[in-house]
Amino acid sequence: MATPIQTLGSPAWMTTFADLMSLMMTFFVLMFAMSETDVAKYRAIAGSLAEAFGGAQLDDRETRMLRGIAAAESRDGAQGTPAEPAEPAESAAQEARGSAPPPDQVLLERLQAGLVDELAAERLIVERHERKVIVRFPEHISFRSGRDELVPEAVPLVRKVVGLLGADAVRITVAGHTDDRPISTQRFRSNWDLSAARAVSVAEQVLAGGIDSGRLVVSGHADTQSLEPNATEDGRARNRRVEIVVEYPAPADAGADAAADPPPA
After folding, report:
1. Is 22 helix (H, G, I), strand (E, B) or coil?
2. What's the pLDDT tens digit per position in 50-84?
3. For 121, phi and psi rounded to 5 degrees?
4. Does one domain contain both 107 and 217?
5. Could you tell me if residue 85 is inside a domain?
């Protein structure tokens, strides 16, 4: 009786099984070694392995793993992705609105810097009040008693102030004021006439300095807007004055005021 021939070594299926295990081990080592998992690359690798295994489909466990990786990356992206930066123009506009001083403050500082000597000598007074900047010329600096002509020394002073005003003010008012002592002459019937005539004299210098007439208003108030009681000579002297009042609109009304018709002269 013939003895059966025995084949040495492993069965043929063991070779295929060993190859499969080696490929699977390599696959999982690569997967765990990646610091940031890319789902697209993972799918590509999985597809390549599936093709190598004869078109086998991913089992439920591997499918759940892919879904978990995708969900984790979605959460990380939502938490770690920085917000889109604002447009440069919008950011600059917001910063400008938040940090820029109001225009009346800018004008006040410009006048104070440009009129240091005049302010120290009390030839004029500069004040800021409710979006207005007021430049006040006392009578003893600018006019002779009972007259409406500017003294020669006051003309360059007014011109210097006008040169510092700038072009961003919506309205410039030149206002004349007197004390309560009545006046009645051939030229001036009352303090109304005198205050208005003095305002006109200053307004002429304002126009000569390049200010647009459409932004200029001239008014005479006589003694109706006194700074001090007229009971003393010092009080009456303070009340006799001409003022250049520069007005700025409220921020919310800036566009409406700019589009409105210019004030009547």
Report:
1. helix
2. 666 565 555 555 556 656 655 655 555 555 555 45
3. -85, 0
4. yes
5. no
Whether 62 and 148 share a structural domain:
no
Q: Choose among 213, 147, 146, 143: nearest CA to 174.
A: 213
Contact (CB, 8 A) for 42 and 66:
yes
Domain count of the fold of the chain? 2
Strands 171-177, 216-220: pairing is parallel
3-state secondary structure of 36: coil
In a domain, 243, yes or no: yes
Mark whether 76 and 106 lie in a shared domain: no
- Provide CB contacts within 8 A for 241, sequence distance 6+: 136, 137, 138, 139, 176, 177, 227
**How confident is the model at residue 258, as a pLDDT?**
47
Q: What is the C-alpha to C-alpha distance for residues 22 and 25, in angstroms, rounded to an integer?
A: 5
5 belongs to a structural domain: no
Same domain, 38 and 153: no
pLDDT digits (tens, 9 = 90+) for 177-227: 999 999 989 999 999 999 999 999 999 999 999 899 999 999 999 999 999
DSSP 192-236: HHHHHHHHHHHHHHHHHTT--GGGEEEEE-TTSS-SS-TTSHHHH
Please say whether the beta carbons of 235 and 166 come within 8 A: no
Is 112 domain-assigned? Answer: yes
**Statement to judge: residues 229 and 182 lie in one domain:** yes
Q: Which residue in 231, 247, 249 sits closest to 239, CA to CA?
A: 231
Domain that holds residue 56: 15-80
